[in-house]
Design a protein that fits this description.
By secondary structure, this protein is α+β, with helices and mostly antiparallel strands. The protein has a domain at 9-133 and 216-278: Nucleotidyltransferase, domain 5, CATH 3.30.420.590. It is built from 10 helices and 14 strands. The strands form 5 sheets. It has a 6-stranded mixed beta sheet, with helices on both faces. A two-stranded antiparallel sheet has the order 4-5. Strands 7-10 form a two-stranded antiparallel sheet. Strand 2 (47-56) and strand 3 (62-66) form a beta hairpin.
């Protein structure tokens, strides 16, 4: 199994059980980093959405862990800064791919697990993916009201444009970025459910081609995506476990900004507990 990024030895030692569970192919777990950015590949951009999707090809379990974009992490050559800066730092050093690898390294160090695969997509590409499946059905847990969208809580059928606006929404949410993370997860799981539904399987190769053409960066081929997708065909949205990371908000100096900024400081004992539950 390919390993794109491994946690640093000092971090891995603190959670050997979690690392072993992804290093042992017999356990069936594969970790796929999903990154959403709001800019095209010719621009230096921060990762606006960061999720680790953990799939078990033996038990067909799926767990998703959202990473708060303000999470404070150590980035080599920079110091302590926000995790969503990793993409911009890497991109400035070596282009789009380096931005992906720098983010994968930061996420692996935070969760203390390997990153096996990665998929980076621009939000405009996400919009096209939703339109490729003729829209998605999402059960919104609360009203979503922003300057260009007003949706009531409950079942909603969303077009690609509406899904994009929900993914970008950041105002009027009671719990700020945590509500936004949840909305982005619901959009992703609804898209996966639609693409992998039994009634849609015959269209999956064509739809994957559309999605693939808009990816900014990935180390998965279309045949690999199709093979893994077929293993999970018919999966239900409620079968996908969702986790957020525990922690607290703090204010501290950011070397990239040159000023004090808001951070989310992870509770590392809590993070290890979340990862352990995700891999059960």
């Amino acid at each position: 199994m390919e390993v794109v990024s491994k946690p640093l030895a000092s971090d891995a030692a603190a959670s050997a059980q979690n690392v072993d569970s992804t290093d042992d192919p017999a356990k069936g777990w594969i970790n796929i980093l999903v990154l959403g950015t709001d800019n095209r590949e010719d621009e230096v951009s921060r990762a606006d959405s960061i999720m680790m999707v953990m799939v078990n090809v033996e038990t067909l379990k799926v767990s998703v862990i959202s990473i708060p974009r303000d999470t404070r992490v150590n980035i080599e050559g920079v110091g302590l800064t926000k995790i969503n800066h990793a993409n911009a730092v890497g991109q400035a050093e070596g282009g789009v791919h380096e931005g992906t690898l720098k983010t994968a390294e930061a996420v692996s160090n935070l969760l203390e697990i390997d990153t096996n695969y990665y998929v980076k997509i621009d939000f405009e590409g996400f919009q096209k993916a939703v339109d490729a499946v003729d829209g998605i059905d999402v059960n919104l847990p609360y009203d979503v009201q922003d300057w260009r969208i007003d949706l009531a809580a409950g079942e909603q059928h969303l077009t690609g444009e509406q899904a994009l606006l929900v993914a970008r929404s950041r105002y009027g949410l009671a719990h700020g970025d945590f509500d936004r993370q949840e909305l982005q997860f619901l959009l992703l799981s609804s898209l996966a459910h639609k693409m992998l539904s039994i009634s849609n399987v015959s269209r999956l190769p064509e739809q994957l081609q559309i999605v693939y053409s808009d990816l900014l960066d990935t180390n998965m081929s279309i045949p690999e995506m199709l093979a893994k997708g077929m293993e999970f065909k018919g999966i239900k949205k409620e079968d996908i476990q969702y986790f957020q990371l525990p922690g607290k908000g703090i204010t501290a100096y950011d070397p990239l900004v040159g000023a004090n900024v808001y951070y989310y400081e992870s509770d590392m004992d809590g993070v290890r507990e979340v990862v352990s539950k995700a891999l059960e």
